[in-house]
Amino acid sequence: MKKGFKYEIIKECRQSGARIGRLTTPHSVIETPVFMPVGTMATVKGLSPEEVKETGAQIILSNTYHLYLRPGTEVISKAGGLHKFMNWDRSILTDSGGFQVFSLSQMRKVTEDGVEFASFIDGSRHFISPEKSMDIQKVLGSDIIMAFDECTASGTSYKKSKEASDRTYRWLQRCYEHTKDWEGQTLFPIVQGNMFEDLRLESLERTIPFAEVGIAIGGLSVGEEKPIMYRMLDVMQPHYPKDKPRYLMGVGSVDCLVEGVCRGIDMFDCVLATRIARNGTAMTFRGDLTIRNAVFKEDFRPVEEGCDCYCCRNYSRAYVRHLINTDEILGGRLLAIHNIRCLMRLMEKIKEAIREDRLLDFRDEFMSKYTPKIQG
Amino acid sequence: MKKGFKYEIIKECRQSGARIGRLTTPHSVIETPVFMPVGTMATVKGLSPEEVKETGAQIILSNTYHLYLRPGTEVISKAGGLHKFMNWDRSILTDSGGFQVFSLSQMRKVTEDGVEFASFIDGSRHFISPEKSMDIQKVLGSDIIMAFDECTASGTSYKKSKEASDRTYRWLQRCYEHTKDWEGQTLFPIVQGNMFEDLRLESLERTIPFAEVGIAIGGLSVGEEKPIMYRMLDVMQPHYPKDKPRYLMGVGSVDCLVEGVCRGIDMFDCVLATRIARNGTAMTFRGDLTIRNAVFKEDFRPVEEGCDCYCCRNYSRAYVRHLINTDEILGGRLLAIHNIRCLMRLMEKIKEAIREDRLLDFRDEFMSKYTPKIQG
Lengths: 376, 376
Description:
The structure is a homodimer.
Chain A: E1 6-12, E2 19-24, E3 29-32, E4 34-36, H1 49-54, E5 59-63, H2 64-69, H3 73-79, H4 82-86, E6 91-95, H5 98-104, E7 106-110, E8 115-118, E9 125-128, H6 130-140, E10 144-146, H7 158-179, E11 186-188, E12 190-191, H8 197-207, E13 215-217, H9 226-236, E14 246-248, H10 254-262, E15 267-269, H11 272-278, E16 281-282, E17 288-290, H12 310-314, H13 317-325, H14 329-355, H15 359-368, E18 373-374
Parallel strand pairs in A: 4-15, 5-6, 6-10, 10-11, 12-13, 13-14, 14-15, 17-18
Antiparallel strand pairs in A: 1-2, 2-3, 7-8, 8-9, 16-17
């Protein structure tokens, strides 16, 4: 394993096979299963690093594609890397830009060499190859760098999905060769294969040899129904390497975290928690609350009873609703703090259940009380 | 003086007559001269109460007019008052709504009884009388409540200015009668008179008997040139009550704070610090910096060298510029923290000069280095 990195399994749930682990990077020790808040633009939207830390986060995700376009690699290089630039001293995982090139860019042209695309900001033309993505992530100085992959949307044909998965594999070899001697950074390879079981298994099998420290599952939560995603996870679960954390990319709703851990996943990230916060939606163990609703006008309870976050300790639903309804920035900020902390608390509950070998019971009980959207 | 309130003068500058004082309210002890951050909607835009406190603020201002419209008096009453609603345990001063009725409302109709106006939110019709403004402020539970006055814009005729000033006086009598037995809240009367010296002096003279704890100067910084405002302050300065703090309403640029204190002012408030922060402008002792500008792209110095605020201790101009340019909320938040702290630090420098009987020298030196807008 790369110097400075370590993954130890502390406990395996006898009921589900889910694990509690400890991932060490040069910047922090991360207990898994873990939810990683997203700081796309070198900031977890609306929050200070101290607030992110107070939620319990030991690692955040940031985006190569966005930072490459703004402020640009040179600024971050001169700042001494992303940690210093944004004042975050715990771990950082950076996405490779693969997903964003496919989801955000127009007029992209994929060749064996890499991807040419137009910036979503000003339409300027750019080219990113696997090697270039690695080089940008080297400048960013993230602890965990992601392989440059080709992600396909739900509904992509078998043929195109196989082509993308095959190219992802060839690109992975280039990413690995380019980074294998780098110090202080480890490469997570990404499994693709769309919603096709044989492609998933093929991709997983050939990706495993490149998993130094951990392995990622990409190309899920890309528009498919949740049962399909769960099915894909079920198919892969028996074949993961035991001793490495498995990272399910872009997944972060309350129910998907529970279901994901039950299927052997150790790491998650998603913008959902912060994005819906800005729209005035609070995550809770019972489901989402639309705080904007009139029913909360004179509701002086905390956003989620029993929550220990800064928002719930100090403010009422009525106050947060007032802030959201008057477009006051503090409203989205308080809900972002709450939502991230909600997912962290959920992970604590999940770990408790793993420790007690009853994660599947926990899942059943939890899901019986969970409704995607609830009223007060 | 009202129970729970006290104003002591600690030091008077022999060079300028400016004073250092200590204003005690039921919620905190406020050293004057003081800048009061504005929390119009029951939040200092973008900041948590802890962040506001960290700037050194002992008192904030909030707006009766805005809170009356949203979330409404009933919600705040049920919350147990504004302090509890917004989680702020230091002092609060509330504006009476007089200024907002005149500056924000359309189709207002002023009668001797009060003002009928259309809400700036939905056009609904409302009526506020002096007594009603007092009653709302009672529910808000602010430490300092402001008289309901009629404010006139710069350029208003002598006749109309006199009418407004006379009505302000009659309304003041009603505000005073209505509130004189209230506990825990003190009424600050407001001097009007537009830009006419004799009206200012007349208004000041008849307002003084109603100044229990402090007195406010309204109707300045309403569109006139700064020298005209300074002239009005010069005219009034010899006539203020010695033993009461004088509050210049709505003034809060760096240069105006210095010039105001030199003219005997003890209290200031203004939205400028937080408003320009959101547009990416930083206040400094040397003048405003447009952080958005390209010149700051690779400038890794703090926003203002020598500043001890959270922003300057932890972040670079390059990072703040990146946040502002990518519309990241943290950017405006960091600049709001800096700007408020900048005004607080300025007040500390001013008090130092008062203590050393050299405020006029300080002013001359300070202003010789000050340019409204500077480049890097």
